[in-house]
Amino acid sequence: MKKLLTHLDWLESEAIHIMREVAGQCSNPVLLFSGGKDSLCLLRIAEKAFRPGRFPFPLMHIDTGHNYSEVINFRDKKVNDLGERLIVASLEDSMKKGTVVLKSNDEPRNKYQSITLLEAIEEHEFDCCIGGARRDEEKARAKERIMSFRDEFGQWDPKNQRPELWDLYNAKTHKGENIRAFPISNWTEMDVWQYIERENLELPAIYFAHKREIVRRSNSIVPVTEVTPVKDNEVIENIMVRFRTVGDITCTAPVESNADTVKKIILETASTSISERGATRLDDQVSESSMELRKKEGYF
To answer: Which residue has the higher pLDDT, 24 or 4?
Structure first.
């Protein structure tokens, strides 16, 4: 009997096709890997696209120096298990060089990642960066093509992109230009969690419900850490939370949750009406256009 393909089969097939197109068209690509759930799905896609051989590209993480230790430890373990090469581009190295200058020691570093990313692209001469951005995350990301063209200055112009008719992709660039490839553009947060469940993917523990000290600030839950200390008159609570997305500590907030398994997270995701980044990314809440402005400057 002929097997009927599920929607996850179709999404996986499309992602494999895109990743192979990158490998076929680009001379020196790299896969951005943070240890987060979306980039973990990309790793599984890469395994299905290229194993039993090695990946035709290294992995790279843009490290702000303010990441959750659980995620960094998981990142290193996963790369070691795969036997692949990881490049860590450090924002703190950019600070030492003087290309990143913080206005104050406690200023959030997330918006400066684009500088470190562009420096790493130039240093290693990457012509394509593969990432796990999805169109359902945020308005600016909904404007992205699968193969998003960036000029020689790393800038993104949403009005100057290539047509992508009939699943035909153009990743060709001149020296100095760059492509950002998004194999899971058409996935949703729900698709990611269902794929994680189907593939039985291991995740950093902070994605699951756990007790954590937090304070309530504006409309968000802010974890109490060395880089996000308690402010005057704030009350520390110890509650059950989980992270829907992970990144720099200063801009990544958890949500209240008792979902301690993937199945429970899927049920919780199905019932929420708040977008993933809208609920948990503090930097995106400052301005609706903040992400688009950063992307035009070179942010992923």
So the answer is: 24
